[in-house]
Amino acid sequence: MDITADKLKRTALNETCRKYGGKMVDFHGWELPIQFEGIIKEHNAVRNSAGIFDVSHMGQVFVSGPDSFRLLQRTNANDLRKAVPGKGVYSHLTNEHAGLVDDIIAFCLSINRYLVIVNATTSTKDYNWLKSQARKMNVTIENKSDVYSMVAVQGPNVPKMFETFAPEALELPRFGIVEKKLFGQDCFVSRTGYTGEDGFEITAPHAVISQIWEQMMELGKPFNIIPCGLGARDTLRLEAGYLLYGQDVDDDHNTYEANYGWVVCLDKGEFIGRAVLERQKREGVTRKLTGVALTEGGVPRNGCKVFKDGKEIGELASATYSPTLKRGIGVGYLSIPDLKNGEPLEVEIHGRRVKAEVTKTPFHKGTAFK
Amino acid sequence: MPKPEEARYTKTHEWIALEGSEATVGVSDHAQHEMGDVVFVELPKMSQKLEKDKPCTVVESVKSAFDIYAPVSGEVSALNSAVTGEPAIINQSPLEKGWLFKMKISNPDDFKTLMDWTAYQEFIKQNVH
């Protein structure tokens, strides 16, 4: 594990993560903790009680002005009409081929003012893409990824932690957002839960984020909250059936192929990539991101080949050991897009064919799904 | 099973302890820390012939897969089925309950190339970033 720390970007929580024993690694150019006490312990803390993550590498793009809605409606597969003030929508930013520029959450803060949460590796790309699509529109696009940090506090006990801290957050529906002053700064509290569990994300300027982290640790004490790293984040999000941009989806994979058809809203009018998606809806896709679970021992990883009746039909995009199901799970683009649940497969791990079966995603439905 | 000070170590972080001509092999405490939660272990086969410094089996943690190298040449003479049933034993007790396999060693001189406890501690210090 070579860390060329001086070349890596550090979040405002870097020192805090180190203080809590975070084992720092290079994550796409960001120095972030892979784990603190251990991935399984952290994973279980989030599933059963509470955990806190530094997700400051995520990006924040603000879109404001009279044409905000028009721009976002045109660049997204989902219907931005669902994002009424105080609410967000998970969506795919699409290119002309319906590939994913990024997967995002667009929060409507008020009429003509949106906060778009984007992935770390794509924030500049997304910003440039939105800019290029906004020509002749009356809209202001600001990439404030370098201004804001973010913590995610996740787990079934997290709402109890927020009873005194931010009672207004408890009123939020899933994907709700509220603006709130914290330590004298304008911050945002949202409720999305990418771990599959109920929980909140706090987006705040760098200056106050470590104070917020410490307060969360304090409020979470009765619930044995622990800091969690990227390792647990990956096992949790994969169990919950969430996509990882750059691994599961990218500019060359689209929403139907990713089995995220519910994101595509064809009755909303024109948007970029629509024609391709319409055709795919009509004709079907030739590959589909499919859930796979091992039925014997072994740990699948991304890149493992998948076989059906001895014939290679694709490879895993994301795969890991599932601490909740206690077996190997993964998702892969399989060339037979209409496989039924329980159909037998094989996954090649270190040259050995391991028995597996087609499995519906999410692999696990946590409190965020209720 | 050995005290940590009594075992010999490889640069790839296996430990090995000798009793007569039979040796017991496992991963070092340092290695299990680096691996994190071990969730799957593949063992070599009984009577499999192992060659010194060649990969002979795999230990998988949630994070990643780790090759296990044969510290010396020889033939596998016993397997620890406890670690396949409960791989976390490797984290809890890498030098006692978490041993991986035993082997009849073919060349006792192989042992001389391995690090003792003090040399291994020094090796870890120099190789930690």
What is the alpha-carbon Rg of chain A in Å? 20 Å
Helix residue percentage of chain A:
10-25%
Q: Which stretches of chain A are poorly predicted, pLDDT < 50 over at least 5 residues?
A: none
Provide the gyration radius of chain B in Å.
Answer: 13 Å
Helix content of chain B: 10-25%
Describe the structure.
The complex is a heterodimer of chains A (370) and B (129). Chain A is α+β, with helices and mostly antiparallel strands and 370 residues long. In chain A, 22% of the residues lie in helices and 34% in strands. Chain A has nine helices and 20 strands. With 129 residues, chain B is of the alpha+beta class. Chain B has helices at residues 29-35, 81-85, 89-92, 117-127; strands spanning 8-9, 14-19, 22-27, 38-42, 49-50, 55-61, 65-69, 74-79, 101-105. In chain B, the strands form two sheets. In chain B, strands 1-2-3-9-8-5 form a six-stranded antiparallel sheet. Chain B has a three-stranded antiparallel sheet with strand order 4-6-7. Chain B is globular, with a radius of gyration of 13 Å. Chain A binds chain B through residues 1-3, 34-35, 38-41, 231, 235, 297-299, 301, 320-321, 323, 328, 350, 352, and chain B through 34, 36-37, 39-40, 42, 58, 60-65, 84, 129.
